[in-house]
Amino acid sequence: MNKDLSTPYNCAMLEDGYFCCDIDLGSLNSWQPLQEELTALSIVGTKLIKESATFERLDVDQELALEMFKDNKYKCQQIPDVAKSSVTGSHVTLYK
Questions:
Q1: Rounded distance between C-alpha atoms, residue 6 and residue 69, angstroms
Q2: How many CB atoms lie within 10 A of CB 31?
Q3: Collapsing DSSP states into helix, strand and coil, what is residue 4?
Q4: pLDDT digits (tens, 9 = 90+) for 7-28
């Protein structure tokens, strides 16, 4: 699996790429989505695809990535490992 922040460790690989979302359910950690909820999420994803949403690739230093994600403890936990596995040993790939 590609070790950049656009493809975190626990993503579902789709035919044309990845869909990832970090969610902390807190006390709802045993929640299982209903088929109707999964369908609604798929509809939103399909709508984004049809809108031809564009994404810009950013290669940034680990320190900048940590600053950008300072309010996301999960990303901050991933960034050092992602950076270490990069060609430079200190960069991560982001998409906006």
A1: 13
A2: 11
A3: coil
A4: 444 454 445 555 566 677 778 7
CA atoms of 15 and 91, how far apart (whole Å): 27
φ, ψ of residue 46 to 5 degrees: the values are -65, -40
Strand, helix or coil at 57? Answer: strand
DSSP 7: S
Backbone angles phi, psi at 82, to 5 degrees: -65, -45
Contacts of 80 (CB under 8 A, 6+ apart): 62
CB 85 within 8 A of CB 3: yes
pLDDT digits (tens, 9 = 90+) for 48-69: 778 877 778 899 999 999 999 9
Structure tokens at 54: 């564009």
Give the pTM: 0.59
